Amino acid sequence: MANSDGAWDNAKKYIETGDASFCGKHTPTHDASVVGDTVGDPFKDTSGPSLNILIKLMSMVSIVTAGLNIAFSLL
């Protein structure tokens, strides 16, 4: 989720430069890219870091649980 915001932001910047025929400000393509960038900003700021912490917590719980399972299965 943190990387997707960067992609949307880069797409908006590319469209704003006007390098292609469909690009440039005040076009429907630019309006859509602004909406995408607005949606992507919370990903970068809130959802992405929260999910990183959750993934680390889940991996630590699984490592501890695996160790306990091995320790108690040998009894």
Description:
With 75 residues, this protein is mainly alpha-helical. 83% of the residues lie in helices and 0% in strands. The chain contains two helices and no strands. The longest helix has 46 residues.
The outline comes out as: rod-shaped
User: How is the main sheet built?
Assistant: none
Average the pLDDT over all residues and give the rounded result.
Answer: 82
Which residues sit in consecutive blocks of at least 5 with pLDDT less than 50? none
Distance between the termini: 44 Å
Give Rg in angstroms: 22 Å
Short overview:
The protein is mainly α and 75 residues long. The protein contains two helices and no strands.
List keywords for this structure.
single chain; 75 residues; mainly alpha; 2 helices; 83% helix; rod-shaped
List the helices and strands and how they pair.
Elements: H1 2-17, H2 28-73
Helix pairs in contact: 1-2
